[in-house]
Amino acid sequence: MSLNPSEARTYYSSDTVSESETNNDILASIHTPEFLNTIRCSGVPNHEITVKVGTPIMLLRNIDDSAGLCNGTRLVVSKLGKHIIEAKSLTGKGASQKVFIPRMTLIPSDHRIPFKFQRRQFPIMVSYAMTINKSQGQSLSHVGLILKKPVFAHGQLYVAVSRVTNKRGLKIIICHEEKEKKETNNVVFKEVFRNVV
Predict the structure, then answer these.
(1) Closest Cα partner for 13 from 101, 120, 112?
(2) Is 76 exposed, middle or buried (0-12, 13-18, 19+ CB in 10 A)?
(3) Are 97 and 89 in contact (CB under 8 A)?
(4) In the beta sheet, which residues pair with residue 158?
(5) Are 43 and 111 within 8 A, CB to CB?
(6) What is the pLDDT of residues 81-95, one digit of tens each?
(7) Residue 145 CB: number of other CB atoms within 10 A?
(8) Could you tell me the pTM of the whole model?
């Protein structure tokens, strides 16, 4: 079943304590599904995801490497079903290709959580923007960079700027210390080039 394209749909995860936990019954009685639903951690979709047709999303897991469906791949939602989301890839070898995203059982590897739990949800997040690291390897027609502080890692500014396919599609806002500026530091560690012949 698909919805009217203008309607948003909310998907809820199914969360449980992982069966691999030795004290599964005790942990399950302490960590109720309602509690597990509130946990947010890196690399795992939220308990509640609201999307509609046209929403830009990003994959959080590798689904099919040969089709270019890897962690960080950007897509746009084209149809919403009850058990599957249809989307079109925005970049890479499968650009504009229709793909189907299923729900997956995901176990976070966040060491701050003292027990393992599993979340069954679509491995996506709404993605109107992304970090410089997530953008690596992507070719985009328009890139807008908001630099609230100087880029701090070697070559990271180059990575961000080189994502755009044409310089007319690049816009940069530099607002260090709440003031708009016209320049920023490009961090390059000269030590990297010492042993280069």
Answers:
(1) 120
(2) middle
(3) yes
(4) none
(5) no
(6) 999 999 998 766 667
(7) 18
(8) 0.70
